[in-house]
Amino acid sequence: MCVFRPVQIFILVIAAVALAGCASGSKPQATRPAGPDPYYTAMYGPLPEERFPLPATDISTVDPNFLRQQVPYSTYEPPGTIVIDTPSRYLYLVQDGGMALRYGIGVGREGLEFAGEARIGRKAEWPRWVPTSDMVAREPERYGPLAGGVEPGLTNPLGPRALYLYQNGKDTLFRIHGTPEAWSIGRAVSSGCIRMLNQDVIDLYNRVPEGTRVVVIQAEPPMSAALPPVEAPMGTTADNPLLSF
Questions:
Q1: Domain extent for 114
Q2: Is residue 28 scored above 70 in pLDDT?
Q3: Catalytic residue (choose from 68, 102, 119, 177)
Q4: Comparing 233 with 69, which gets the higher pLDDT?
Q5: In 11, 12, 14, 70, which residue has its Cα 20 to 30 A from 127's Cα atom?
């Protein structure tokens, strides 16, 4: 029979702890995978049940602040109101309890922005698009060939949904609509309309009825953090007139 003295037992315990530490230290540490948060990847995933199956949106080019999220929002506007903060590039759907759903948006280039109040006078799924007469007059080479309109589909500049803004019962020709150009969210690139990520405009479309009040803020807030200009990726707005609406 082996009999261990207290000193020997202490040495054996120390050795066992040291070996355990070496073993645990040899295991690779878990690291968070690079790329967008899986929560948002799922949120902007494909929608195969759509009339035109909608692919996932590549959100790797989108600032995470512009992805859909519920945020505290202090406003005098009642729940159900849409507030478009043009300088900050956010659209808010006001909720109860001082909260709002916030979506990132792309807005009109300087001089083409919408301002004031409106109502959603019409809603359309997979709408047809026709350039306005002003667009054709301003850029006849670009929009003249499209004056007859563009049929619904994945290349239609209005995307899968459009909310038509009316004032005093008349169409203002401004819309809230989708876009396949995720990189343009947070930028002033459109011909005046409010563009949203395709999955976001579907989400908003499902939440608001016709007649919803829309308030558009144009004044620059103090200490405005303007985003720097960026070059459009090859094959996008710069080359395709359909994607600048």
A1: 38-220+240-244
A2: no
A3: 177
A4: 69
A5: 70
Position 87 in a domain: yes
In a domain, 68, yes or no: yes
Active site residue 230: no
Q: How far is residue 194's CA from residue 108's CA, in Å, rounded to a whole number?
A: 7
Look at residue 115 and tell me whether its pLDDT is greater than 90.
Answer: no
Counting the structural domains of the chain, the total is 1
The tokens describing 117, both together, are 């109040």
- pLDDT at residue 32, rounded to an integer: 54
Q: Would 228 be classed as within a structural domain?
A: no
Q: pLDDT by residue (tens digit) across 204-214? A: 999 999 999 99
Q: Which residue has the tokens 């792309």?
A: 106
59, 191 Cβ separation under 8 angstroms: no
pLDDT of 5 > 50? The answer is yes
DSSP state of 26: T
Q: What is the DSSP string of 223-237?
A: T--PPPP-PPPTTST
Q: Domain holding 188: CATH number?
A: 2.40.440.10
Active site (annotated) includes residue 142: no
Task: Tell me the β-bridge partners of 93.
Answer: 82, 101
First vs last C-alpha separation in the chain: 90
Residue 124 lies in a domain: yes
| Burial grade of 38 (CB within 10 A; 0-12, 13-18, 19 or more) | exposed
Do the beta carbons of residue 71 and residue 102 sit within 8 Å?
A: yes
Indicate the SS3 state at residue 69.
strand
Catalytic residue, chosen from 118, 193, 208, 214, is: 193
Residues forming beta bridges with residue 116, ordered by sequence position: 216
